[in-house]
């Protein structure tokens, strides 16, 4: 028996409203040429927590638990590709944990990021509008995992942040910004908006 999955509100909003206004604003006639969010990558660096090139078990367990809880899938461990003496890292030592989210999990994660996590950031004044690369991909960082309501900080032994990268297809910074603003991403206000 195949289970029916329901679309998140954000995915429905993109398909019903944002995609059409995006095509209209940038004169995109082909639906397949419109910018679209293809995946979200969440990673947590653990290089500072290494002790004699081994990861402490409590750190590993906390990071895996955090990523599994907020993303809904088990993370993979990323090993250092080369040795860097200034950072006291050897080739093959654990350096990060990451998850790559696509389809329904991606939309659900983005919905929770916009509506639950960012409003809980301390002294939040909006996300930077300058964090786009040439391909329109957006990167942001969180300094602590406490912004996610599903994380119980009383049971956490290792406090850490995370990097979140939104990867787009067929895009550039201007189109990605328009798309994310249409979805409700809380960017900083510009002088023209005041």
Strand portion: 15-25%
Shape descriptor reads globular
Helix percentage range: 25-40%
If you compute it from the alpha carbons, what radius of gyration comes out, rounded to the nearest whole angstrom? Answer: 19 Å
Mean pLDDT: 81
What is the H/E order?
Answer: HEEEHEEHEEH
CATH superfamily: Ribosomal protein L5
Write the CATH fold name: 50s Ribosomal Protein L5, Chain: A
Distance between the termini: 53 Å
Spans of at least 5 consecutive residues with low confidence: none
SS-based structural class?
alpha+beta
**Number of helices, counting only DSSP H or I runs of 4 residues or more:** 4
Known CATH architecture:
2-Layer Sandwich
Give the biggest sheet.
5 strands, antiparallel
CATH class: Alpha Beta
| Structural domain tally | 1
Order of neighbouring strands in the sheet with most strands: 4-5-1-7-6
The total beta strand count reads 7
What does this structure look like?
With 194 residues, this protein is of the alpha+beta class. The protein has a single domain, classed as Ribosomal protein L5 (50s Ribosomal Protein L5, Chain: A), CATH 3.30.1440. Helices cover 30% and strands 20% of the residues. The chain contains four helices and seven strands. It has helices at 9-25, 57-71, 103-117, 173-183; strands spanning 36-45, 50-51, 54-55, 76-79, 94-101, 138-142, 162-169. The strands form two sheets. Strands 4-5-1-7-6 form a five-stranded antiparallel sheet. Strands 2-3 form a two-stranded antiparallel sheet. The protein is globular, with a radius of gyration of 19 Å. The model has no long low-confidence stretch (mean pLDDT 81).
């Amino acid at each position: 028996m195949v289970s029916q999955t329901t679309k998140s509100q954000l995915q429905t909003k993109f398909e019903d409203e944002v995609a059409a206004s995006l095509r209209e604003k940038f004169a995109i006639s082909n639906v397949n040429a419109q910018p679209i969010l293809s995946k979200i990558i969440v990673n947590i660096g653990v290089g500072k927590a290494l002790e004699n090139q081994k990861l402490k078990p409590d750190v590993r367990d906390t990071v895996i638990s955090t990523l599994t809880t907020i993303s809904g899938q088990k993370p993979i461990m990323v090993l250092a590709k080369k040795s860097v003496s200034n950072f006291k890292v050897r080739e093959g030592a654990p350096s990060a944990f990451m998850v790559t989210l696509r389809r329904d999990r991606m939309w659900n994660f983005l919905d929770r990021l916009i509506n639950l996590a960012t409003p809980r950031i301390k002294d939040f004044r909006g996300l930077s509008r300058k964090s786009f690369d040439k391909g329109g991909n957006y990167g942001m960082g969180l300094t602590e995992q406490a912004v996610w309501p599903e994380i119980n900080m009383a049971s956490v032994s290792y406090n850490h942040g995370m990097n979140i990268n939104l990867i787009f297809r067929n895009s550039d910074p201007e189109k990605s910004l328009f798309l994310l603003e249409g979805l409700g991403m809380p960017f900083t206000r510009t002088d023209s908006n005041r």
